[in-house]
Design a protein that fits this description.
Layout: E1 11-14, E2 17-20, E3 23-24, H1 25-29, H2 35-44, H3 50-62, H4 67-80, H5 85-94, H6 104-115, H7 120-133, H8 151-162, H9 168-184, H10 192-202, H11 210-231, H12 235-245
Antiparallel strand pairs: 1-2, 2-3
């Protein structure tokens, strides 16, 4: 039995300096590249083109903020543990799931399946039918506030088209949307999470790590909410309002 040699192609550090993805950290990266470029280089292993930077920027900007509700957990943790801001940020990131941006991996997998299919239309129809027969919502479609279109999705698709990077994954999203509308007999909103999955696919991001980009996006938004909590605290009052809004209905304790 042979043992594969352990190795990494990401970074190395020694007394003479640091190398990240083959580039000198001090001379070639610090002060020389943007954070978006560094994200792309570190994760995907090569320096992006200007068009790729613009598309990734659009993706990252879209999910920075998801409102007060999705950041409330972070605010509450910060209220209880202000000495550990990292715990509050981690709390907010842990909330990325099926309700707040986390389904992009499932969408990305569906789009990848359609991209690789011999018959994209039939494959999309089969995927949609599978969700419907299982009585499950179709990830990437529908939104409680945006109808008939999600303006964020429209802008994301406009950006990727403008940058000349609209390709197989965007086409797969449109094929999927057509299948959804046909199956349900009406137009269903393509939400921003679906648009992001399509754009990440065009950038070469594997669907299995797409949710990681949601985490990257949300981190500054959570820090922003925590910063506001410093000057305009709301967590305690919201907590008290919740306590008042949810009355106790259990058994009454004995007063004897």
């Amino acid at each position: 039995m042979t043992t594969q040699q352990l190795a990494t192609r990401i970074s190395t550090f020694d007394e003479s300096g640091a190398t990240v993805r083959g580039k000198d950290l001090v001379d070639e990266l610090i002060g020389e590249v943007s954070f978006t470029q560094m994200i792309y280089l570190h994760i995907l292993g090569r320096m992006p083109t200007l068009a790729e930077v613009r598309v990734l920027d659009a993706v990252l900007v879209t999910l920075v903020d998801h409102g007060f509700v999705s950041s409330l957990g972070a605010r509450m943790v910060y209220m209880g543990s202000p000495e550990a801001i990292q715990a509050a940020v981690a709390t907010g990131i842990l909330g990325i799931g099926s309700q707040f941006g986390g389904v992009m991996e499932e969408i990305g997998r569906n789009l990848e399946t359609i991209v690789n299919a011999a018959d994209p239309d039939a494959t999309a129809a089969r995927i949609v039918a599978g969700y419907r027969s299982a009585r499950k919502s179709i990830p990437g479609f529908g939104h409680p506030d945006f109808r008939p279109e999600d303006p964020r999705t429209l802008k994301l698709l406009k950006v990727v088209e403008r940058e000349g990077l609209s390709g197989k994954h965007v086409a797969a999203l449109r094929t999927m949307a057509k299948a959804v509308d046909t199956n349900l007999g009406k137009h269903i909103t393509i939400n921003a999470t679906a648009g992001i999955a399509a754009l990440l696919g065009e950038l070469g991001v594997p669907w299995r790590i797409m949710r990681g980009f949601a985490a990257i996006s949300r981190a500054p938004g959570i820090v922003g909410h925590i910063c506001e909590e410093l000057t305009n605290p709301a967590a305690y009052r919201v907590g008290m309002m919740a306590q008042e809004a949810v009355p106790y209905t259990g058994e009454t304790r004995s007063t004897v």
